[in-house]
Amino acid sequence: MEYKIPRGTFDILPADSAKWQQVMSAFRETAQAFGYAEITTPVFEQAELFERSSGESSDVVQKEMYRFQDRKGRWLALRPEGTAPVVRSYVENHLEAQGRLTKLYYIGPMFRYDRPQAGRYRQFYQYGAECIGSHHPYYDAEIIALQVAFLRKLGLQKIELEINSVGCPNCSKIYDEALENYFEPHKEELCGDCRTRLQTKPRRLLDCKVPSCKAIAKGAPVMTDYLDSDCREHFEQVKSYLDKMDISYKVNPRIVRGLDYYTHTAFEFLNPALGAQNAIGGGGRYDGLIAQIGGKDTPAVGIAGGFERLLLSLEQEGITVSRPYRPQAYLVLLGEAARESGIRLLGQLRLSGFSVQHDPEKDSFKAQLKAADSSQARFALIIGEDEVKAGTVTIKDLAAGTQMSLPIGGVAQFLALS
Question: Quick check: is 195 in a domain?
Answer without folding.
Answer: no
